[in-house]
């Protein structure tokens, strides 16, 4: 996957969000995209998912322009857990399996295996009819879940998609509703379960992107810093400044320059 000199402006937008962005997503890599609020991270992901087309430049998969690919075929190649992910008023099972609608007849055994691997067993245990429970139906016999429980279920949806051949998993703030412990487990279990699919992870909490193979900083519509966590800390640029700022916020003043201060969170 390559972004080649991609610019993008929303219809009616006053200025471009992306301006000449170039980025390669390598097979099997864990890539993290960071940047301030409004930097264009979600926009980048929506372009990747084919929801919008670049205003200039192109996005390619195996050298083929996304514009030339059948949109449905492309969506069978990737799965995205969006920041504003959708809550479907369906059963728990359907909420998972609609990530790969073409895969009919997947047995419950396989689904339950993914639920366990992805750390959503506790969510399922609370549902009186298990996978058959109707979700988000006010009144009647259905039930609603908390933001964090929905997020855990949505993660299983992503694992299900990978199980059915998706090679790219995009996670846009997948743990925003989870507590710190659940967040750590999410990364271990979900990202650990995607096998050799590529992962693009967006997160404001920089401690969660630290293990990524590569971190890119999105600023002013393009990538301004790129490397491993250690590379970027050595570089001493904006990523390093943000990382130290977050670490010091968590640990209080005085710990601002200590290495690895976020380890204990
Ligand atoms: N549908 C839209 N129409 C017009 N402008 C939009 C639209 N969606 C986003 N924008 C604008 O594009 C810019 C980038 O937004 P985007 O959601 O990509 O940022 P982000 O980096 O994901 O931010 P956050 O960290 O807050 O999620 C912002 O200035 C935003 O106001
Ligand atoms: Mg966003």
Helical proportion? 25-40%
- Helix-strand pattern, N to C? EEEHEEHEHHHHEHEHEEHH
* β-sheet strand percentage: 15-25%
* Structural class designation: alpha/beta
Sheet with the most strands: spatial strand order? 6-7-8-3-9-10
The CATH topology of the largest domain is Rossmann fold
Radius of gyration: 19 Å
Given this structure, which CATH class of the largest domain is correct?
A: Alpha Beta
What does the average pLDDT come to? 87
- Assembly level: single chain
Bound molecules: adenosine-5'-triphosphate, magnesium ion
Sequence stretches where pLDDT stays below 50 over 5 or more residues = 254-265
Tertiary shape: globular
**Based on the structure given, which CATH architecture of the largest domain is correct?**
3-Layer(aba) Sandwich
Work out the helix count. Answer: 10
User: Quick one: CATH superfamily of the largest domain?
Assistant: P-loop containing nucleotide triphosphate hydrolases
Q: How many domain modules?
A: 2
Key terms:
binds adenosine-5'-triphosphate, four-stranded antiparallel sheet, Rossmann fold, 265 residues, binds magnesium ion, 2 domains
Structure characterization notes:
This protein has 265 residues and is an alpha/beta fold. The chain has 2 domains: 1-77 and 167-187 and 199-254, Rossmann fold, CATH 3.40.50.300; 86-165, no CATH class. The protein has helices at 41-48, 71-75, 92-97, 108-117, 121-125, 147-163, 180-189, 206-209, 229-235, 238-251, and strands at 2-8, 18-24, 30-34, 56-61, 64-65, 78-81, 168-172, 198-202, 214-219, 222-227. The strands form 2 sheets. A 6-stranded mixed β-sheet has the order 6-7-8-3-9-10, sandwiched between helices. Strands 2-1-4-5 form a 4-stranded antiparallel β-sheet, covered by helices on one side. Strand 9 (214-219) and strand 10 (222-227) form a beta hairpin. Bound molecules: adenosine-5'-triphosphate and magnesium ion (MG).
